[in-house]
Write a structure and sequence with these properties.
single chain, about 190 residues, Phosphatidylethanolamine-binding Protein, six-stranded mixed sheet, three-stranded antiparallel sheet, 2 helices, 9 strands, about 10% helix
Length: about 190
């Protein structure tokens, strides 16, 4: 089966297994009820192709992201963008982290396209991606069509200055603070 066909079947298979949009065991599941935390992008549809301009093959610009439905008591947000299909979706071995933001203020509802660090919402802190740098790095799969999972967490507290924290460090710091989670998945495959 070709890569695109496998990816097209993936959401149905995950939904049937009850795994689509499943959060960590201690986290509320994303999506679902009306008024629930929702994450979207005008750049791509859920499970749709991420435009080239957001990738290493283009300008490597972060996509615009918008969210709504933050639960009462939200004090901050965390955004993590990662690729669970690295290095090869046929035999994934690691989850590669592309972007980490934390302490986004509770009144934030958008990140503009190609947002520079200087234009992030006031108080937002940057964590380290798997290039050991802060900031957005777009899709750049070595082989096959990969999924890029944009995860937004609503927290009942700000995390404070953790420096350029890794995804794992942030997940540890978020334990017991997650009120809601939303997810947006886009896909990308390099042209031959």
């Amino acid at each position: 089966m070709r890569g695109a066909a496998r990816v097209a079947l993936l959401p149905a298979a995950l939904a049937a297994a009850g795994l689509l949009c499943a959060g960590a065991p201690e986290d509320p599941a994303p999506g679902g009820a009306a008024g629930a935390l929702a994450l979207r992008s005008p750049s791509f549809e859920p499970m749709g192709e991420i435009p080239r301009r957001h990738t290493c093959d283009g300008q490597d610009r972060s996509p615009e992201l918008r969210w709504s439905g933050a639960p009462e008591g939200t004090r901050s947000f965390v955004l993590i963008v990662d690729d669970p299909d690295a290095p090869d979706p046929a035999a994934p071995r690691t989850t590669w982290v592309h972007w980490v933001l934390y302490d986004l203020p509770s009144d934030a509802t958008v990140l503009p396209e190609a947002v520079p660090a200087s234009a992030l919402p006031p108080g937002t802190r940057q964590g380290a991606n798997d290039w050991k740098r802060t900031g957005y790095r777009g899709p750049c799969p070595p082989v096959g069509r990969h999924r890029y999972v944009h995860k937004l967490y609503a927290l009942d507290a700000a995390l404070g200055d953790l420096g350029p924290a890794s995804k794992a460090q942030l997940e540890q710091a978020m334990r017991g603070k997650v009120l809601a989670r939303a997810e947006l998945i886009g896909t990308y495959e390099k042209e031959p």
